[in-house]
Amino acid sequence: MTSMTALDTPTLLLDYQKLLKNINEIASFAKEHNLSYRPHIKTHKSVDIAKLQLQAGAVGITTATIPEAEAMAAGGIKDILIAYPISSPQKIKRLIKLLQQGIKLKVMADSAEQLSYLQQELEHTPFTLEVWIKVNSGLNRCGVEPGRDALLLAEKIMSHSKLKLGGILTHAGHSYAASSCAEIERIGLREGKAVVESAEECEKAGIPIPVRSVGSTPTYKISGKVPGITEIRPGNAVFFDAIQAGLGVTTLENCALTVLASVSGVYPDRIVFDTGSKTLCLDKGAHGNETVKGFGHVVGHPEVTIERLSEEHGVGVVSGDTSLKLNDKVEIIPNHACTVANMFEEYVVHKGGNVIGGWKVE
């Protein structure tokens, strides 16, 4: 059996036991609170991991892009939500191909104009497409405003012969910029209420809303408890990372994804690793999070801070003494697991430090 320390670097490592623990924690929360679980696979982009999530009770998956949906469909996954507004005719034709494969497809919508494009492309097909309304719960990215605007869009969906309304969703991604657990709590409650209040507005008008869905790893255990919510869509929680640990959502010990790196240079005032921006990414959180220190946590070496990155070099500064020397290998917990996984083609899966397989990053 190969020890992971015998691998070349940089290598994307995945701790199998921590992965299963993280998946089961989400699934247990969903079961306890009578929620459906539809994980966002943009974190891992792996059919193998998605199938583990389905085995744990997930009702389907969420993707951010059509290529992600196509890859998951090719891997045998049949129930897919694309949580991104799609309006270009080129992209809609790809949606139709997924429908032709028998995929139970859902898409997100937040404008009447987008609905018109969907209707136009679907009119000459035998298919009806399920559409979920995106409401803005504070991220101020995509989405209609909760309440009356959601009702108006719901009425538009109902007026189109080739569209059917399946649910209302939101994503509180601004929770990644929270400065305290109390702020995460406030964001999570607002997230849940934005969806529930919008659904209630629709149902008062006689439009049923079967699914009320929330996401965001920092908030799903808060928004998921709001009465009326029926589904959670956390993504990052499958792995966790240094940002989530910095937010207080988890601990570094629960982070399943690491990068195996080598010391490629030792100098009087710095240590250089073979993991630069093309490996660790220049990411401290897309929404301004300031809780992380440096560009990744060097496991077992708190004296080292990766202070700067060039493309193939991670430059660490040392506070005090260190035992690290040339060719030593270390694990680095990335700041943002989603972007780092996106840089690799394969996970090297290990258990107790021994390699047990390789899973493709589709």
Structure description:
The radius of gyration is 22 Å and the shape is elongated. With 362 residues, the protein is of the alpha/beta class. It has helices at residues 16-32, 47-55, 66-74, 89-100, 112-122, 148-158, 181-204, 220-223, 242-247, 277-280, 337-341; strands spanning 11-15, 36-37, 61-63, 79-85, 104-109, 129-134, 163-169, 211-215, 231-233, 257-267, 270-273, 297-298, 304-309, 314-318, 329-333, 346-351, 354-360. It has two domains: 4-11 and 248-360, D-serine dehydratase-like domain (Lyase, Ornithine Decarboxylase, Chain A, domain 1, Beta Barrel); 33-234, Alpha-Beta Barrel (TIM Barrel). Helix 4 (89-100) links the parallel strand 4 and strand 5 (104-109). Helix 3 (66-74) runs parallel beside helix 4 (89-100). The longest helix has 24 residues, at 181-204. The chain starts with 10 loop residues before the first strand and ends with a strand.
CATH topology of the largest domain: TIM Barrel
**Based on the structure given, which CATH architecture of the largest domain is correct?**
Alpha-Beta Barrel
Q: What is the class of the largest domain in the CATH system?
A: Alpha Beta
Mean pLDDT: 96
CATH superfamily of the largest domain: Alanine racemase
Q: How many structural domains does the protein architecture include?
A: 2
Contiguous uncertain segments of 5+ residues: none
Radius of gyration: 22 Å
Q: Helicity, in percent?
A: 25-40%
Which percent band covers the strand fraction? Answer: 15-25%
In sequence order, what are the helices and strands, one letter per element? EHEHEHEHEHEHEHEHEHEEHEEEEHEE
Cα end-to-end separation: 26 Å
Overall, the morphology is elongated
Structural class: alpha/beta
Oligomeric state of the chains? single chain
Main sheet, how many strands, which sense, barrel?
9 strands, mixed
SS elements, strand count: 17
Count of individual helical segments: 11
Organism: Bacillus salacetis
GO biological process, one term: D-serine catabolic process
Family: Belongs to the DSD1 family.
Pfam family, one: D-ser_dehydrat
